[in-house]
Amino acid sequence: MRHIMAKSLAPSDGVRDYLAAQEKKSLLRFLTCGSVDDGKSTLIGRLLSDTKQIFEDQLAALERDSRKHGTTGDDIDFALLVDGLEAEREQGITIDVAYRFFATPKRKFIVADTPGHEQYTRNMATGASTADLAIVLIDARQGVLRQTRRHSIIASLLGIRHIVLAVNKIDLVGFDQAVFDRIVEDYGQFSRSLGFQTIVPIPMSARYGDNVTGRSDKMQWYSGPSLIEHLETVSVDEAAVELPFRFPVQYVNRPNLDFRGFAGTIASGSVAPGDEVVVAKSGKSSRVKRIVSHGGDLAQAAAGQAVTLVLDDEVEISRGNMLVSPAARPQVADQFAANLVWFDEHALLPGRSYILRTETDQTSATVTDLKYRINVNDFAHEAAKSLEMNEVGICNISTRTPIAFDPFAENRTTGAFILIDRISNATVGAGMILHSLRRAENIHWQSLDVGKRVRADMKNQRPAVFWFTGLSGSGKSTIANLFEKKLFATGRHTYILDGDNVRHGLNRDLGFTDADRVENIRRVAEVARLMADAGLIVIVSFISPFSAERRMARELMADGEFVEVFVDTPFEECARRDPKGLYARALNGEIKNFTGVDSPYEVPEKPEIHLKTLGKSAEEMVDTLEHWLNERDIAEDQYDSGGGI
Amino acid sequence: MTTALTHLQRLEAESIHIFREVAAAFAKPVMLYSVGKDSSVLMHLAMKAFYPAKPPFPFLHVDTTWKFREMIAFRDQMAQKLGFDLLVHVNEDGVRDNINPFDHGSNTHTHVMKTVALRQALDKYGFDAAFGGARRDEEKSRAKERIFSFRNAQHVWDPKNQRPEMWKIFNTRIASGESIRVFPLSNWTELDIWQYILQEDIPIVPLYFAKERPVVERDGMLILRDDERMKLRPGEVVENRLVRFRTLGCYPLTGAIESDAETLEAIVGEMLTARTSERQGRLIDRDEAGSMEKKKREGYF
User: Do A129 and B12 make contact, defined as CB atoms within 8 angstroms?
Assistant: First the structure.
């Protein structure tokens, strides 16, 4: 291609006027979704092309690509404009969301082209989370499919209130009104409970452009708007500025001792100097002194603006807290109910500890109760013990520290959160808060006069939880028994919690699925904590194969109290010993979910004590443990007496 | 009551939010400064985000040693004027091997002097987050990338397995050695960039404005002969022509366009009638299909 002779046009005044007009245009963010091959990428290609957003060199590249990868014969394959990844072009599918930009004389648009395959639902959710409108595409020959329903449910959960039902490929059913009417009827039935404010059905052919930018002359029976006409005029105003003031504190700006500003983006409402504001978590109140900006202080600021607030007095506020209107405060709780969409190939396990993040806050959280899963076909509420990838459910969540929030239905910014896996750091789920659970406020901790320290002192010892983890048959129980005997002989007060024994009583309702294993560990960890609180030295002997649960147990205990003991015996040796004959049966397939055989064991990365048992006696192991305990107690005694108590 | 924000106000707020999120969540961020117009906007936004403080991170320029001389002069002038901490990194191995765009081609040159150099610099200082000025409207693999884009310890981008990115809630968690590339200008278009430069009166390298410059026509592009290292091929002549640049990179790989746009208004006016994309003047994008994605996976910005 040749360099081009560009001609600068228009006197500069003309350009300034033009730009001023551009600035006044509103913005609509929307996504295209629906099932595979319903023509999402083709539609966006058509929109970009018909609104003159494609440059000559891009068109030339597109023609080349169409010959190589295209699926439309000699015609240009518009899908190749948005399927920007090599893997996508080669496979002819959309894997991840693409963001494209276009404008018409009336409005600016950001469109997210999202994948239809079920396996990439999380990428569809990513595109939907920032959109105000969804174009749900349907292949006129196929009608409403499972993915049409799943995407509609997710769009609804994520707060989208406006739908365009694009009945595409209408040319392939002879522009037949009856087909169109039937699909519109089906979708209307299905989506009745999804709370959409508008559903605008449009018959179209994205490939040939019918009813995309201009009205088609092939469907005299259709009198509604073309897609672009509708997108240009639909009102999606959420008016976040009308809601109560919410300012999640993102960053504390403190360049010197004379300046302390709270930086963040106003989530809703507005603020002006002199306004009273309340710190959500502490309830302390103050007044806004200045709204600082690079171009000078502002007289007011509103939802969507990223500002820095300076307050009248020194109140304690850090990232994750929120400055709010005193008249309408958010909820502050550590237990709440939420809708959850699961993204990860490892299922959600109730009881497992995840990182929970809101826009600026972070804490650890567990799902305490999975109430039900939603069947995307018929909305049935199904009982479930876990959520698999791409499933949607309602659950109760418990956080380690309280967070400030509003119900998602009232505020899309302050009512949302994501869950992150502690080990892989993957974003595993997205949540929309429904309401707080009163439980958190009603159960206060009983403050007791006789404390843990006193109970332990009476026994002349320091509490500890020795957590033995290792494969079945690695020698945990043998070593634990001998260790307890030794401690008993030196006058220590102890208790052993043994995996097998606990399963006969407290945990006899639990099986061996991943979800049950997590709950098994959670209960035992809680019991161990109570016993440590009573001043005991607790020895827990559990396979406990998952590091996430061992970490959860660790976090329950006071600092220095949790002692992870890795009883490290190679798999072959355990299988050879096989004291209970279990390995033989598991290897024969008679026992399912057996750790080390068909269920994983995650090796501890940094155990306090690592016992390599091969070639050593149980007595030697116990010596190591006792030595460790004595060292710790000596260290703590020194610390205490040095502390001036 | 305030009326709704304008388009540029919305974009500005989003970018500032992203800057602050990184400053709050990462231990050692850095801003990649490539001296072009997008970097100028990025720098301006960083100054705004932390005002009255300075941006709490250094700026890094990966110098391929083949940048236009005017870019280097502009870079040093800006660093002095704004008082930011400027780090310059050159791949000394590449210099020793005399890697250059003429003998080794754009692919090898870009890989060694830019991609590898960038990885060296990130490893050397141990940065855990790096801001870049890439925009989604530039190129179709960029249209697919997250605002917070995860890189493993080898700086590799896995486009088929990106983290979901919901609302404005960014997952900033990484393990040791891993990093995040952050793109505050993801949702800006080329037109937005120019409008913003005009509105905020942001300084840019003079090469963007039309002027008589000594150019050579080569492979269908107009190359500015910025120094003697560019040898003329038989039949080639250096002519003074009225040209300007729409994007800036290494001078032997960046084509000029003939233009008489000497003011920002004229540049915007020209843009509005442009029939080709800005990357059309970049030789590196044309080597092979999907070449940007390939470079990005290897660690290019």
Answer: no
